[in-house]
Amino acid sequence: MKLKWGATTDVGMVRQQNEDDFCAEENLFVVADGMGGHNAGEVASALAISTVRSGARGGIFTADQFRELVQQANTAIYTASLDDSTQSGMGTTLTAMAVVPGEEPAVLVANVGDSRTYLFRHGVLSRVSVDHSYVQELVNEGIITPEEARVHPRRNIVTRAMGIDRNVQVDVFHQLVRTGDRVLLCSDGLVDEVADFDIAQVLIDHSNPQEAAEALVMVANANGGRDNTTVIVVDIVDDISEPVPVPVADITTTVTPVTADATAPMPAPVVRKFLRPSVIAFWSALVFIVLSASTVLGVYARSGYFVGFDSNDNVTIYQGRVGGVLWFQPTVNTQTRLNGDDLPEDVRREVLLNRTFASSSQAAKFLSLVETAILDASTTTVPITTTTVK
Ligand code: MG
Questions:
Q1: pLDDT, tens digit, for every residue of 326-379?
Q2: What's the gap in Å between 114 CA and the centre of ligand 1?
Q3: From CA 158, how far away is CA 306, in angstroms rounded?
Q4: CA 230 to CA 24: how far, in whole Å?
Q5: Ligand 1: centre distance to CA 229 (Å)
Q6: What's the predicted TM-score (pTM) here?
Q7: CA of 11 to the centre of ligand 1 (A)
Q8: Separation of 230 CA from ligand 1 center, angstroms?
């Protein structure tokens, strides 16, 4: 199988740092989207890439081997996070494609998190990987459509990531390919900004894979560029046979690709056949419990507000729990121009207490007290009131 590819990564229009990383070389293509404070996201994504790249030097031959390699990368990140407190809790998503030898041209796609691998064939864009995300679970349950998921306020919550736990479940997909196919690997910075339909149009418009990758990043940035964006476009330019693209179920999990029509609901995953009813009942109950626990945890983690300083030392109202809960991190609710350097010392200490509130209006009320205290301090030396807003 002969390949041609193009790859690029971009910090985007809003972020200060690029926590994405990628690898594009003969027979191996990987995208990783890191997360974690103090630059730890960059460390996690780089570690994922370097571990998979070095482990794949001798070639990837089986799904189990690929899965094991991604597990090794998970262990490397997890161990590093334990060794350095500044990297505690760091993680990364990963989607990777490896060309495997065999009678029919095929690739293996590994996935953890919400970076994606797509297949583009005859103008139709299909997802090969399945996101491990909160909104994907809502899509699976039929609560929202894929298009609604793309703009959902909680679309960035991943339910699986590398480096968070000692072990991680890795999905591996076996995909037959043929001449003319294009494989697209990308971080969520692309799909959050550009709908599948528009991605397909860019791929149609740019036959050169490097130009296609760069054009996709340009569109993401033109649409807002609110996240780092990484894109790899791999063209299958030559193979001997032209196989029918039948998913292979006996190697690993196989999904029915989604069509380019972003408004159409995702087809249900292929259910393994010949399972006994008791087994189905057990797994159904387990899935229900896990989904319920995850939903309850998510609701808890997103409930409440607190006031603190952001990374630029500006007073900010956050939604969520101080320090976050597992992978649910607090998000900015209201950002002010009140900088820590401009605050009287007693007011600054008050903000550092990270007071929590049941609603954003209560937090806003506290903020107005802070502003009043600053005004008072500019004329008198009366300290900030310590009234607790309830
Ligand atoms: Mg991202």
A1: 888 899 888 888 888 888 888 888 888 888 888 888 888 888 888 887 777 776
A2: 8
A3: 23
A4: 11
A5: 7
A6: 0.63
A7: 10
A8: 9
